[in-house]
Design a protein that fits this description.
- The structure is a single chain.
- With 448 residues, the protein is α+β, with helices and mostly antiparallel strands.
- It folds into 3 domains: 2-118, Trigger factor ribosome-binding domain (Alpha-Beta Plaits); 158-252, Chitinase A, domain 3; 260-440, Trigger factor, domain 2.
- Helices cover 47% and strands 20% of the residues.
- The protein contains 12 helices and 11 strands.
- β1 and β2 form a beta hairpin.
- α4 crosses α6.
Amino acid sequence: MQVTQTLSEGLKREFRITVPAGDLDSRVATRLSDLQGKVQIKGFRPGKVPAAHLKRLYGRSVFGEVLQEVMTEANQKIVEDNKIKLAGQPKVSLPEEQAEIEGVAAGKNDLAYTVEVEVLPEITVGDLKTIKVERLVTDISDEQVDEMLARIAEQNATFEPKDGAAETGDQITIDFVGSIDGTPFEGGAGNDHPLVLGSGQFIPGFEEQLVGAKAGDEKTVTVSFPEDYRATELAGKDAAFAVTVKGIASSQNAKADDELATKLGMESLDKLKDAVREQIGNQQKQASRQKLKRALLDALDSTHSFDLPPSLVEQEFAGIWTQVEREIAQGGDAAKEGKSEDELKAEYRTIAERRVRLGLLLAEIGEKADIQVTNDEVTRAVVERARQFPGQEQQVWEFYQKTPEALAELRAPIFEEKVIDHIVELADVSDKTVTREELFADAESEEV
């Protein structure tokens, strides 16, 4: 087998592969010889089938197997001899002329074909110790704990029927029919719907107009749908709801006390407070970690530049753009930016390039630091994923055991977080105390 490089342009390489006809014929003959002692053909004793007859029956399928074997060996030789890392699957271009193909299959002609590959760039990692970032931290106040306890108490309160007018915090039971310009709209009606006034369950202005209503009242509630309403056909439009109040109930036992703690499986209110404080702390640690990770990635992105494999960028961009198109169709944020499709594509292509650059960089850092993801870590991730599908745990487990690609998708974020931990250990990280509002600002829009 002869492998000759014919092109080196950026990250693109092209090779010419030539396999002598004798080599192919020898491989085919060896495989047919192996078959001779295994196959059973009517009219012949085991192991006595003539080679020529076997070749007529199985020659094409055996040649296909040999061809696949040869291409796999050639790809390995390309990688090993040239000491390159592939960015994707090689693109193989086999002969197209039927006469040439038949000549190769018949063992008369040498096999000659081309292989195009895209290689990963050589990445020089900067000194990670020079990275300076701040880790945002915040204290847990007693007020935060009390606020969460109050919400928990409200969520676990019972409601008892009451006479008189409805007040904020009461639960009313209503029938309603919504219409726009006198025409009812889809999804705008409901019967026996429980609604806690002040909960914000309905669009702004709806619940406030029912404060003071009594059981049996029929009211018309007029509201305007928000401009960014998820149902774009309703966004910004005025609507009228015919509402019948069928019952009113007041909240009972909405207190944070030992009784609530016992109801939730805690020994006492103090134990419940400890659990709430721990939960708040975990939320803040997660937000702090996300902010720190973003800062580290920003620093890495701004200090490293190298060629990106076009195929990886295109693949990443395609995934992003599919999501953007879905959001545009649903009237999401992407549809309200007032930008042309070309402007949006340019913007999201930059995001795709950033993601590919950082992915390659983190992989290089992890490889140089010999960071490994253990089987136990992957197993725990599979177990955690299975728990998200109650009653289907066994099916989820079997799916991951049979699907290496799915396991790789679980392994990747574990590896990334371990690399981030490694960078944190080396970088100059200082803590900065901020308010809770600052810590959680723009949490949903964090693009790492």
